[in-house]
Amino acid sequence: MVGALKAVVGVAALALASTAGAAPKASPADKTVVLVHGGFVDGSGWEGVHRILVRDGYKVVVVQNPTTSLADDVAVTKRAIASAAGDVVLVGHSYGGVVISEAGSDPKVTALVYIAAFAPDKGESVSSLIANPPPGAAVPPILPPVDGYLFLDKTKFANAFAADVAPQTARFMADSQVPWGVAALEGAVSEPAWRKKPSWYLVATDDRMIPPPAQRAMAERAGATKEEVPGSHAVYVANPASVAALIEKAARSAPGAAPAR
User: Fold this and answer.
1) φ, ψ at 76 (rounded to 5°)
2) Please, what is the angle between helix 154-161 and helix 167-175, to 10°?
3) Which distant-in-sequence residues (6+ apart) come within 8 Å of 123 by Cβ?
4) Residues 6+ apart with CB under 8 A from 47
5) How far apart are CA 119 and CA 210, in angstroms?
6) What is the full DSSP assignment across 210-260?
7) Residues 6+ apart with CB under 8 A from 5
8) Buried b vs exposed e over 211-229: b needs ≥16 C-beta within 10 Å?
9) Residue 26 DSSP symbol
10) What phi and psi, each to the nearest 5 degrees, are found at residue 195?
11) Which domains does the chain show, CATH number per domain?
12) Rg of the chain (C-alpha set)
């Protein structure tokens, strides 16, 4: 009896010793998701994604970029990263992909997620990436610049940007457009964060703003974990569940940031 008790105690001690040095399992509360919007829109489009992430235990920061220049937008995004608790999963939609490619070098960022987004390499910008569209690709209805800023034709906004969004919402998005600075389109990335950080990419297969073949090519070049869903350029508005699911996969898979020294 005494011998059996000693054996049980010994096994328990070994089990405790083997787990004592193990790092605690990461939970959603250990990471903050920072959401970066693209051109012509603001951060309110992330509402559905925000709701899901918060429900699932993540802390979320929604960036409100002025979309005036890449430098300005990166500065605003870096302030959001600095304010975030724990490691950061940095998410960008459309032009927001350029912003996160530049801002994502911050040591707090452990993962990048591109949602129907530009993923430029060193020296590339939105302007250079859209300079030679593939034959037959849809042409976004961008109006000529006024005072250095761009808008989409309101009458064509829904079809081009938000074909699967509820009509009333698409109309609101068209009427509440944020001017997109030509300087932002011309801002070139210095050192893309995806070269050093793990990345994920969601291709919207019905996108009429960034051609799906271009999205796939950028995702493959970045070595991103790629998923595809049917959806317009506003897939994050129309299908927040799929977008949030990919973000959560990235958050669970990404390594932790190196401890500060």
Assistant:
1) -65, -40
2) 130
3) 188, 189
4) none
5) 11
6) S-HHHHHHHHHHTT-EEEEES--TTHHHH-HHHHHHHHHHHHHHSPPPPPP
7) none
8) bbebbbebbeebebbbeeb
9) P
10) -75, -20
11) 27-253 (3.40.50.1820)
12) 21
DSSP string, 115-149: ES-----TT--HHHHTSSPPTT-----BPPPBTTE
Residues 6+ apart with CB under 8 A from 9: none
Burial of 115 by CB count in 10 Å (0-12 exposed, 13-18 middle, 19+ buried)?
buried
User: Quick check: 96 and 36 in contact, CB under 8 A?
Assistant: yes
Which tens digit of pLDDT belongs to each residue from 24-45?
Answer: 445 776 899 999 999 999 999 9
Q: Are 244 and 82 in contact (CB under 8 A)?
A: no
Cα dihedral 123, 127, 128, 130 sign: positive
**Which residue from 203, 198, 257 is spatially nearest to 223, judged by alpha carbons?**
198
Closest Cα partner for 120 from 189, 217, 220? Answer: 189
DSSP code string of 28-62: GGGEEEEEE--TB--GGGGHHHHHHHHHTT-EEEE
Do residues 100 and 114 touch, judged by C-beta distance below 8 A? yes
Q: The pTM is what?
A: 0.88
pLDDT single digits (tens) 201-256: 999 999 999 999 999 999 999 999 999 999 999 999 999 999 999 999 999 998 87
Retrieve residue 124's tokens.
Answer: 């590339």
Query: What does the block give as tokens for 122?
Result: 């060193």
